[in-house]
Amino acid sequence: MKIIDAHSHIDYLTHKHQSDVVGSVCCTNDENQWTQLIDLIHNDKNIYGAFGVHPWFIDSVSDGFDSRLEELLNSDSDYMVGEIGLDKYKPNMDKQIDVFIKQFNLAVKLKRTVCLHCVGAWDKILHILKQYDKSKLPIIVAHAFNANQKILEQLLIYNNIMFSFSKINVYGRNCRIANIPNDKILVETDGNMDVCLMDVVQKIMTIKNESDIAEIIFNNTQRILKHG
Ligand SMILES: [Zn+2]
Fold first, then answer.
1. Who surrounds ion ligand 1 at CB < 5 A?
2. d(CA 132, ligand 1 centre) in Å
3. How far apart are CA 217 and CA 23, in angstroms?
4. Cα(13) to centroid(ligand 1), Å
5. How many Å separate Cα 29 from the centre of its chain?
6. What residues contact residue 197 under an 8 Å CB cut-off, 6+ apart?
7. Full domain range(s) for residue 121
8. 114 alpha carbon to ligand 1 midpoint, in Å?
9. 48: CA distance to ligand 1 center in Å?
């Protein structure tokens, strides 16, 4: 079995610790981590970088961060955008939206995969998505997905939205995997060393009753790495 972690962080790169995991998409939290991640990528071809500012860290944002992000994304066509998004339980939603949209616009302009964090703010994300031409949207990976069925249905209208799941999402009572097409499923640790990705894939295999699911998930990951 070959697995790529679709969402991890600098402190825990899954492929270095779990034998079936052959690569890790690594997201940054803030601008301070950008150079750190570039160094990691240059020393390990199995790390796939996503650069951005996470909604929990918008206080770290300084003037011109979006031009610096654009320059960085232009320096390597493999780079993705993330972790970006909105979180209802964190302060300053207006600034969160502003920081998110600036980064999302870059992803749309440069056609880069987005690693999306959304907690309790799907109404806002759906409203923002409606402002764009559907056919021009990049791949968007909704990470640690656990929203309700109604929201899922509104997201499934978009061909480019994919969903990644950690242990808590596949065992939780709100697990939506059964209702998500196989070609939109990914797995992730979110940098949590207690998550064994092989177990997550096996649980998905049981839910879907699909013996090829590991290969399908692996191929889905290739799609996000190639920005579609
Ligand atoms: Zn994360």
1. 83, 190
2. 25
3. 13
4. 12
5. 12
6. 3, 5, 14, 18, 20, 21, 187, 188, 189
7. 3-225
8. 12
9. 14
Number of folded domains in the chain? Answer: 1
Closest by Cα among 191, 131, 122 to 150: 122
Taking the model in full, what pTM does it have?
A: 0.96
**Among 58, 65, 50, residue whose Cα is nearest residue 8:** 50
92 C-alpha to ligand 1 centroid (Å)? 19
CA distance 95 to 99: 6
The per-residue pLDDT string of the chain (228 residues; one tens digit each, 9 = 90 and over) reads: 899 999 999 999 999 999 999 999 999 999 999 999 999 999 999 999 999 999 999 999 999 999 999 999 999 999 999 999 999 999 999 999 999 999 999 999 999 999 999 999 999 999 999 999 999 999 999 999 999 999 999 999 999 999 999 998 888 777 899 999 999 999 999 999 999 999 999 999 999 999 999 999 999 999 999 999
Tell me, in angstroms, the distance from the centre of ligand 1 to residue 37's CA: 14
CATH code for the domain of 24: 3.20.20.140
Q: Distance, CA 8 to ligand 1 centroid (Å)?
A: 6
